[in-house]
Task: structure prediction
Amino acid sequence: MPYKFVEGVAMADVAFEATGKTLEELFESAGRALTNSMIENPEKIEAKETVTFCLKSTTEEKLLHNFLSEIVFYKDAEMLIFSKYELKFSKKREEIILEASLKGEKIDNKKHHMIVDVKAVSWHMYKVEKTDAWKAFAILDV
Amino acid sequence: MEFKKPNFKKISDYIWEIGTDYKEGMRVPARIYASKNLLDQMDLHVYDQISNVATLPGIQKYAFCMADGHSGYGFPIGGVAAMDVNEGVISPGGIGFDINCGMRLIRTNLTINDVKPKLHQLVDTLYKDVPAGVGSSGILKLNPNEFNELVDTGAKWCVEKGYGWKEDLERTEMYGGVKEADSSKVSKKAIKRGLNQVGTLGSGNHYLEIQHVKEENIVDEKLAKKWGIFPDQIVVMFHCGSRGFGHQVASDYLDLFLNVMESKYKIKILDKELASAPFNSPEGQDYFAAMSCAVNMGFANRQTIAHRIRESFAKIFGQSAEDLGMHQIYDICHNRASVEKHEVDGQMRELIVHRKGATAAFGPGREEIPPFYRDDGQPILIGGSMETGSWLLVGQESAKETWFTTAHGSGRVMSRAEAKRKYRGDTLQKELEKKGIYIKTVSFAGLAEEAGGAYKPIDEVIESTHNAGISKKVVKLLPLGNVKG
Result:
């Protein structure tokens, strides 16, 4: 699992580090970390419904922040959590474009074991960097 | 990241100052209001974060941190700062993502002997009737136009639709609504996130608690009596905020401020979560209007839940909420910014006061206090952990040095991960039941994260605020039953 929760940096919140060889992998890892911070058993999320959206930004860092915020948005607005990620990146002039198709299902208290509700993706210590692979660090406000 | 511990200047046993020489760019000193023991327990990030707050443009006198302070981002939790409305900034990081997170306290004429035999039934009913946890649907089903009306108005909208009593508004901070709200400044996304959440508790440290009054815990007998508190009484306290709506408002404007802060306003900050814009700028004013909508949503959310609690009690005890004497004592917020008049160096000035995990604590006579309480001082509700109890306090004139502000809760001393390693939710539930506290939870993992041991001792926090003169004890309330989101 290319993400891990990081301790000792956020007293009341949840921090994670996600990695990926490609941007697609990084975004999926970060999305899974976010979902796993809310649901103990994300393997139980079935791919019953699909949402698609398109995001643009000039940096990968900002784009990932927007992507995670979108997952938080769907959790409240549609009560959806996701388990399957189809992500396509392209570039147009200075902008990186993400076309996302996420599959999941509505939150079911009996089936999905809740931990805590994520309110937002904070900017505190938030970072995306590329060395050999992509790496992101984020703190979720819960 | 390594932070150096400041050389604190002791102002009193409960006030500790960090001088402007601690960090480059500090415009004012920072002051922490806590006992020495609580000060020593604070993580080093608190000192770093409160001194960052002291660098914000327009800050007056001091950056404050309350006794329950712990690290957050941008401001620490427990952080307070007042900026001049003309020269200063407004920062979403000084309010938090959960705008108008707050507490409401409802009294009853029931005693512990009336409730004990029906405690399980009552808590189970409240658990069923008051939606809680991730992905729960609200009590109110609104269309976007109705939702806009609600966030423009606040708790009054709910009362007019039959969710609550008119007198509730006179027992709510700001009468449950702020006039600066303007829903045209709120994104469609924020509305979509909040639409289905009016009347939901949420999760994390949000809860609904049945509490009781022990005679020996009444500290100010005269005031307790006037406010309708008596020995052995049952009261209901709950803690929640503006839900996804407020979270989205904060996220939207944080992004906007990050875009304009340096390029347009030449403001340099030490932490992205301190993103700011001049209060007196189009962006600053738009955020203030949108934030005010979230303040109204918080009041409306708690108003709707209060109505449902009254219905649940009526169902269990076979009497109307009126006959059960379920009057509201108070509702108060601990995450917001508001424009207030305060004395600065002998002159009354208009300030934008940021309180993040800190409660307004107006002293007697202040016009912000509803008439029923004005002569006494503002009632203040401070929630403790589900094991240790909560407090009802009253505002003091001597709190003017903190812009009439006091603490808001216990404050964490243990991270969520550490708490989950140390406690098991199901074991904790059983142990608490042995102590006479019955808990229903959406999540055992979430319950473990909220164990009493993960928090500072509430009595020590209250002692600090009482002795520092920023709020005075009225009564301690002990948990009996708890619904945890």
